[in-house]
Amino acid sequence: MYDTILVPLDNSPTDETILRHIRPLARLCGSRLVLIHVADGHAARNQSQLNLADSQEIRDDHSYLAARRDELAGEGFGVSFHLPRGDPATEILRIAGEEHADLIAMGTHGHGLIKDAILGTVANEVRHRTCTPVLLVRAPQDKAAR
To answer: Is residue 106 classed as helix, strand or coil in its secondary structure?
Structure first.
């Protein structure tokens, strides 16, 4: 059913929620997992034009994705990753197309309807701009942060 599942990560506790949720589905379907993190800071977005070396943030993001890939591969999953730079929703959709993703599985921070409506979310933008099914899993909120 889902040969390829694209999993956007943001190096936050939300990643644990979506990865914990997606593992049984991927195992059941024999899915290949494609991890993605989009670097969207000013330096990342303009790295090529300004001929900049990778920032520490980019190197850390790459290490994080490689570690998550190795963790999932150690559990028997076929897994790869991408670290594009630019607008998160645009890059997620681009990679989903390139990888022929059958499902985009995203964790959400669960800020709440009003805050999400005002600020917008990458998840909502992806969901509204694609024909690919999108699975959104809300991360538990930290009660201390409320």
So the answer is: strand
Measured distance CA(72)–CA(29) in Å, rounded: 15
Q: pTM of the entire structure?
A: 0.86
The three-state (H, E, C) secondary structure of 14-78, written as one string: HHHHHHHHHHHHHHHHCCEEEEECCECCHHHHCHHHHCCCCCHHHHHHHHHHHHHHHHHHHCCCE
What is the chain's length? 146
Residue 145, pLDDT above cutoff 50: no
- Strands, sheet with 103-108, edge to edge from the N-terminal-most edge strand: 78-82, 32-36, 4-8, 103-108, 134-138
Which residue, among 1, 44, 51, 52, has the nearest Cα to 25 in the 3D structure? Answer: 1
Looking at every residue in the chain, the average pLDDT score rounds to 85
Round to whole Å and give the CA distance between 106 and 89. 11
Measuring CA to CA, which residue among 116, 23, 114 is closest to residue 76? Answer: 23
- What are the structure tokens assigned to 30, written together? 């024999």
Q: Write the pLDDT tens digit of every residue in 117-132.
A: 544 588 888 988 999 9
